[in-house]
Amino acid sequence: ESNIPRYHQEFHEVGLIGTGEFGSVYKCINRLDGCVYAIKKSIRPVAGSVNEKNALNEVYAHAVLGKHQHVVRYYSAWAEDNHMIIQNEYCNGGSLADAIVNRKNENRMFSEAELRQLLLHVAEGLRYVHSMQLVHMDIKPGNIFISKEKRLLGVNYDSADDGFDEEETVEEEITYKIGDLGHVTSINNPQVEEGDCRYLPTEILREDLAHLTKADIFSLGLTVYECGGGGPLPKNGPEWHEIRNGNLKDLPQYSRDLNELLKMMIHPNPETRPSAVSLMQHRVLCPFSNK
Ligand SMILES: Cn1cc(CCO)c2c3c(c(-c4ccccc4Cl)cc21)C(=O)NC3=O
User: Fold this and answer.
1) What is the pLDDT of residues 18-45, one digit of tens each?
2) ipTM of the assembly?
3) Of 59, 84, 88, which is best to mutate to test ligand 1, by the most ligand atoms within 8 angstroms of its C-beta?
4) Cα–Cα distance measured from residue 10 to residue 6, given in angstroms and rounded to the nearest whole number
5) With a 6 A CB cut-off, is 140 part of the ligand 1 pocket?
6) 144 lines ligand 1 (CB under 6 A)
7) Which atom of ligand 1 approaches the CA of 177 most closely?
8) pLDDT tens per residue, range 149-198
9) How many CA atoms, within 13 angstroms, populate the side-chain half-sphere of residue 277?
């Protein structure tokens, strides 16, 4: 327990960017390095409680999962005035859940190319997580964050009669990052804390932990399906079971290949689902690789 109030001393709080039972997340600027961070403040869990185990779990996972462009980066964590505080990379594009809402309101759904990019980025992040013998266990739109970087592609000088004026072509580069490692557990000694039931495969409910990495693949399949307009996803009932029997309504605005890939990702038999490695080599995701 540090009794020095580090949070307000080291950071300027810009604003609240999220609240939930998990706590509150703030956009903050570090007074020393001037960089922006996402900082989650949650009530300090009771020593020895499940919450404390999960909170420590999250920090251990971040510490092990160091730096990867498709996993939200961790910087520091500390306890202060009865709060648990974790300082993460700030992703300036909101969460994928926000993007789904915004796209629906603007009636501008994701293109097939955007769904493939999402699938590729998160598959790459999962490949890394799984290679560290860990599983995420709560992949869903609310836990995938977006970073947008503007890249200057070129500058045109068209010499109009009144001298030069530059025309910049800027491209916005999107990177999807896996966040919220609160449910991460080890493949070899799993202590599964169930994630959001809308994205949960049946075998986890049956406590069959033999193919944990495929639970993340299942959740990713439903996450992409939801971005493709297949949502909102059921939390229970016949619709929930229909999906777990492998019956996913077609998304007619996307290719047969993509629809088939999503169906394979949510297959009732976890062994049939593609691994993160095989996903990345799938022809739907790297169309130009000649087989
Ligand atoms: C609600 N919310 C909104 C954002 C900003 C998206 O533009 C956000 C972030 C994070 C988190 C987060 C999730 C789980 C644990 C710790 C943190 Cl900081 C939550 C976030 C995080 O780790 N990085 C974020 O950008």
Assistant:
1) 998 789 999 999 999 999 999 999 998 8
2) 0.99
3) 88
4) 6
5) no
6) no
7) 23
8) 998 878 887 766 666 677 888 888 999 999 999 999 999 988 888 899 99
9) 2
Is the link from the previous residue into 287 a cis peptide, with omega within 30 of 0? no
Q: Which of 91, 98, 139, 140 to mutate to test the pocket of ligand 1 (most atoms within 8 A of CB)?
A: 91
Confidence of residue 200 (pLDDT cuts 50, 70, 90): very high
| Residue 38, ligand 1, Cβ within 6 A | yes
Torsion of CA 23, 29, 35, 38, to 10 degrees: 10
pLDDT recorded at residue 291: 47
The pLDDT tens digits for 209-223 are 999 999 999 999 999
- Ligand 1 atom closest to the CA of 39, numbered from 1: 18
pTM: 0.92
CA distance linking residue 87 with residue 50, whole number of Å: 22
CA dihedral 116, 231, 257, 248 (to 10 degrees): 150
Please say if 138 is a catalytic residue: yes
- Active-site option among 138, 180, 196, 216: 138
SS3 32: coil
How many residues does the structure list for the chain? 291
